[in-house]
Amino acid sequence: MRELTYLEAVREAMSQEMRENNDVFLLGEDIGVYGGAFGVTRGMIEEFGPERIRNTPISESAITGGAVGAALTGMRPILELQFSDFITIAMDQLTNQAAKLRYMYGGKGSVPMVLRTPAGSGTGAAAQHSQSLEAWVAHIPGLKVVQPSTAYDAKGLLKAAIDDDNPVIFYEHKLLYKTKCEVPEEPYTIPIGKADIKRSGGDVTIVATAIMVHRALEAAEKLVKEGIEVEVIDPRTLVPLDEETIVESVKKTGRVVVVHEAVKRGGYGGEIASMIAESEAFDFLDSPIKRLGGLPVPIPYNPKLEKATVPQVDDIVEAVKETIRFK
Amino acid sequence: MANEVFMPKLSSTMETGTLLQWFKEEGDSVETGEPLFEIMTDKINIEVEAYDDGVLLKKYYDIDDEIPVNQIIAYVGQQDEVVPDTSPGISGNEINEEKELNESAVEETSVRIEEQSKVEPSEDVRATPAARRVARSNNILLNEISGSGPKGRVHVKDVNQVLIQRNDSRATPLAKKVSKAHQVSLESINGSGVNGKVMKNDVAKSIDRVSRVDPSIQTSQKRKLSGMRKVIADRMQESVNTAPHVTLTSEIDMKKVQELRKNLMKVVESHTGNRLSYTDIIIKATGEALSRHPAMNASLNDDEIVLNNSINVGLAVSLDEGLIVPVIQDVPSKGLREINDHAKRLAKNARNQKLQEDQLKGATFTVSNLGMYAVDAFTPIINLPQTAILGTGRIQEKPVVVDQEIEVRPTMAVSLSFDHRAIDGAPAAAFLTELKQILENPYELLA
């Protein structure tokens, strides 16, 4: 099968959907001729024209509000925020409009929109352009939150997000844009709310999101040399969360490390850990649940310090060893 | 109230007894004095009788169980009386408890509370949820487990270790031995004993199952070391362990014994009805030799060497289940006819298990004859507290040099084992030489 980069997979998912469905359109800053901050929409304006690939003013609130309005009137907008850090400006539209309207209208209106935005550190973009704020939106009832880690998952999940009648926050990761894997040419859907076991193992479960899926897999490769078999679970969507897959895995291994790039304090890992502790997997835990997350500091500009603030492969290896020490 | 039946303490050193068999089943009626079960101690097998009339309500132990003395092993009482499901432990404890309870009702409640808190001490133990789950499902108290984690936290690993140990103690010692010998895992065996205790028979069954599956594994026949076998085992072990054995051998020309026997055969037979045997003559000759070498007719008791006045020769008699040594008293005073008469009667009684207690007592020396087999010399084991034993082999025609000529003579090898603590080599050798001379010139016995 041919390989696509994560970035190309996102673009292909949108293009294929737009060819099928005239209600789908894109809006965002510099997504037209410029192709967006990371080039995801490059070439799309040539195919679909400025009516459907719409450049907007530099106002995340306006872009999001416009998308909510368009969605309410029956369109299926995909909006792009250049950096997920700027979602803060869109929060009122997201929290008080997008997430609420279907409930408040008693189901008579819906908001079938997708908010695409790149998150994460590692590009030297410093404190205001490197955050992972997915926990903010995951906290709001009415929003779905997707965080694909591979090109294959990105294409399938983006189609599912576009097809969904509710607002979906679709987190892309800057460092993943260039990663490649096999991606089918024809459109396909990965259901929202279904986790993926990226690697099977019986000793420790790692629940990892986005870029951390890759670091966890790398850690697993190192650990297997020491005879430790790690199971890596990628939830793929934070809301709704595939609790069953995680619980079953923890029941099997009795040990779990939850790892994400976002700051550990108040991060979504706390939600996953709590869910495990509340579940029937509790009785199978033979070691405290371990969380790994970013340090509670703004992401530094210095590349070494930037790396030091978020979990790396060796940190994951250490965490796994700690949970397995008393096996 | 139902009456306790407990493991009796039969000697000052007895700590446990092994249950050999039950004569009654649960529900059977029992009369005072009726045998209830049989036990084996380190010394004897004994049938234990019922002390009370009634019905055998409950048996707590099974065959092969090793049970501490005074442990309650059954209840005899009236039909429908309620008794505990498992043995309440050592007899007498209950009575004390009752007394205490009656003394003060207030105390009773406080005791109860204490007991309750004792039942669930797990709450104070550091343990992972998984360890708690495994412990819970196996009825293990967490406070009995030492945790390997930080601050003594109990992990599944620790519980599993206890489980393995418990499985170990979930079996009778014999079952463990058998399972070990056959490399059968006890964990896979469902015990039929109290609280699922694995008994020897359970192991045997499981071995059976395995052997049916795999015909290359053969089960050998097994027999419990009990009764006479056990006595022999213990006595032989004790003798070998305590007495430094030295065995001297010699070859004796039996030509004249043969002649003597032939000549006296009719005489003896007409009096006793038995054929005169070589053994009879050997016993007589041994008695004579012992009378000339009193040092060989000694007993070693603790720190005392006792030179016995009477010369009583024990004769080893082989039985199906073992070996027994009846005694011919005062051999030198008896003629061959009397010896023949006694020896035959004792051997017959031994085989019919009709020996009287005093017929087994008082031997000062033992003769063990394997002459009926193709055996020459061997190393007999001394029957303590005696200090020597004579083993005789077959009589065989052999070329021997007599007066520079080679002649064919009937010869017999004799083996004398002696206890070097009591006797030295030279006197033992002198005794053996004496015996050889007597047998090579048996007419001397008439002198």
Task: Describe how the helices and strands are arranged.
The complex is a heterodimer of chains A (327) and B (447).
Chain A (H helix, E strand, L loop, with lengths): L2 E3 H15 L3 E5 L15 H5 L4 E3 L4 H13 L3 E5 L6 H12 L2 H4 L9 E6 L14 H5 L5 E3 L4 H13 L4 E6 L6 E3 L13 E4 L4 E5 L2 H14 L5 E5 L2 E3 L3 H11 L2 E8 L4 H11 L11 E5 L8 H7 L3 H12 L3
Chain B lengths: L2 E4 L9 E7 L6 E2 L4 E6 L4 E5 L4 E6 L6 E3 L3 E6 L15 H11 L1 H15 L9 H9 L18 H14 L3 H9 L18 H14 L13 H16 L2 E9 L1 H18 L5 H15 L5 E4 L2 E4 L5 E3 L1 E2 L4 E2 L2 E2 L7 H16 L13 E5 L18 E15 L2 E15 L5 H16 L7
Parallel strand pairs in B: 12-16, 16-17
Antiparallel strand pairs in B: 1-8, 2-4, 2-7, 3-6, 4-5, 6-8, 9-18, 10-11, 12-15, 13-14, 17-18
Helix pairs in contact in B: 3-4, 5-6, 8-10, 9-10, 9-11
Fraction of helical residues of chain A: 25-40%
Q: Kindly estimate the percentage of residues of chain A that lie in beta strands according to DSSP.
A: 15-25%
Percent range for β-strand residues of chain B: 15-25%
Q: What is the CATH domain class of the largest domain in chain A?
A: Alpha Beta
Please provide a written account of the structure:
The complex is a heterodimer of chains A (327) and B (447). Chain A has helices at 6-20, 44-48, 60-72, 87-98, 101-104, 134-138, 151-163, 211-224, 243-253, 268-278, 303-309, 313-324; strands at 3-5, 24-28, 53-55, 76-80, 114-119, 144-146, 168-173, 180-182, 196-199, 204-208, 230-234, 237-239, 256-263, 290-294. By secondary structure, chain A is an alpha/beta fold. Chain A folds into 2 domains: 3-182, Rossmann fold (3-Layer(aba) Sandwich); 196-324, Rossmann fold, CATH 3.40.50. Chain A has a 7-stranded mixed β-sheet, sandwiched between helices. A 5-stranded mixed β-sheet of chain A has the order 9-11-10-13-14, sandwiched between helices. In chain A, strands 1-8 form a two-stranded antiparallel sheet. In chain A, helix 2 links the parallel strand 2 and strand 3. Chain B has helices spanning 93-103, 105-119, 129-137, 156-169, 173-181, 200-213, 227-242, 255-272, 278-292, 336-351, 425-440, and strands at 3-6, 16-22, 29-30, 35-40, 45-49, 54-59, 66-68, 72-77, 245-253, 298-301, 304-307, 313-315, 317-318, 323-324, 327-328, 365-369, 388-402, 405-419. With 447 residues, chain B is an alpha+beta fold. The model of chain B is unreliable at 94-122 (pLDDT under 50). Chain B is built from 11 helices and 18 strands. Chain B is elongated. In chain B, strands 9-18-17-16-12-15 form a 6-stranded mixed β-sheet, with helices on one face. Chain B has a 4-stranded antiparallel β-sheet with strand order 1-8-6-3, with no helix packed on it. In chain B, strands 5-4-2-7 form a 4-stranded antiparallel β-sheet, with no helix packed on it. The interface between A and B is small, with 10 and 12 residues.
